[in-house]
Design goal:
Elements lengths: L37 E2 L2 E2 L3 H24 L10 H10 L1 H35 L1 H16 L2 H12 L2 H25 L4 H9 L4 H40 L7 H10 L3 H30 L12
Antiparallel strand pairs: 1-2
Helix pairs in contact: 2-10, 3-4, 3-6, 3-8, 3-9, 4-6, 5-6, 5-8, 6-8, 8-9, 8-10, 9-10
Length: 303
């Protein structure tokens, strides 16, 4: 029987683990890093990043309310934050329905941008001829102002919801495409050569090497595209709303402007901003979950 086999009860180190050196020192004498203190379920180091922006926001709102009250600015010119909050509560049934319309278009456009962008990025990296042929048109699509072509899209598509989705997709599509292409092409050349030496197929290399290498780049593009999808949806709603054929938050802003209901306009603006923040937080959380165990941008550094 080989002496290399482990004895009964012997602990086997997992593959890739590095055993500590057997230098004769007592393991209890080695430094032990204490676990970070947690407050309300969050690490103590994360609270300054939450409380500092929150404190600044509260001070800005307090200053805004003070200026409005001291200078007695009429609500139809600049409403105070308290009046905006009261309007948000009073008009919530109407604004909530418009919020759902805008979010539905935004999320649908983001899903379409991710699906088409990742698929085209994979095709482009597998065929340089295809990339050189089609990528310039993606650039043209990106640099064309959506506000200029939105009326044409609304006329051609002849369906308000679908036309808004197309406009939002146009804005959100390019960051996913360009970042994913950059990530797929950023795989370590030495590892690519190693895969070739082991006669790995093109799709094996893509699955086991290029896609993991592209994941951080794709997630960076996803964060950008999330906000751009919301912007594209709102811009398209403005164009469609001028014809009275929309019910999203942008249409509520136009409606409030025509009726001089400025507090309601600010309430709709607040919902748009809050939606953008929520999308960014959600995409950042997804990126953290996918990268926290292996990528340098998310792995916690031990002191």
């Amino acid at each position: 029987m080989s002496s290399d086999l482990p004895l009964a009860g012997q602990v086997i180190a997992p593959l890739g683990a590095v055993e500590p050196p057997h230098d004769g020192t007592d393991a209890s004498a080695r430094p032990v890093y204490p676990a970070e203190r947690r407050v309300l379920g969050l690490a103590a180091s994360t609270w300054p990043g939450i409380l500092a922006p929150l404190a600044i926001g509260i001070l800005m709102l307090a200053g805004w309310e003070a200026v409005v009250r001291i200078r007695e600015i009429p609500p139809y010119i600049l409403p105070g934050p308290l009046l905006v909050a009261q309007t948000l509560v009073a008009d919530w049934p109407t604004l909530a329905g418009s919020l759902l319309v805008t979010l539905r278009i935004t999320l649908a456009a983001l899903v379409a941008a991710v699906t088409v962008g990742v698929a085209l990025a994979i095709l482009f990296t597998q065929s340089k001829w295809l990339e050189k042929s089609l990528f310039p048109y993606a650039v043209i699509l990106q640099v064309t102002p959506v506000v200029a072509i939105a009326p044409l899209i609304i006329i051609w598509v002849n369906d308000v919801t679908l036309s808004l989705l197309v406009c939002a997709w146009i804005v959100a599509f390019f960051p996913v495409l360009s970042n994913t292409i950059l990530g797929l092409n950023s795989a370590d050349h030495n590892l690519v050569t190693l895969f070739q030496l082991y006669r790995a197929g093109r799709w094996q290399t893509l699955r086991h090497l290029r896609l993991p290498a592209a994941l951080p780049y794709f997630l960076g593009g996803l964060k950008i595209s999330g906000g751009l999808a919301l912007i594209g949806a709102v811009v398209a709603e403005f164009v469609a709303g001028t014809g009275g054929s929309a019910s999203g938050l942008a249409y509520r802003i136009l409606e409030s402007g025509y009726q001089l209901r400025i507090p309601r306009m600010f309430a709709a603006l607040f919902l748009i901003s809050a939606s953008g923040i929520a999308i960014f937080v959600l995409t950042s959380w997804i990126a953290h979950l996918l990268l926290r165990r292996w990528h340098e941008s998310a792995v916690r550094r031990e002191l």
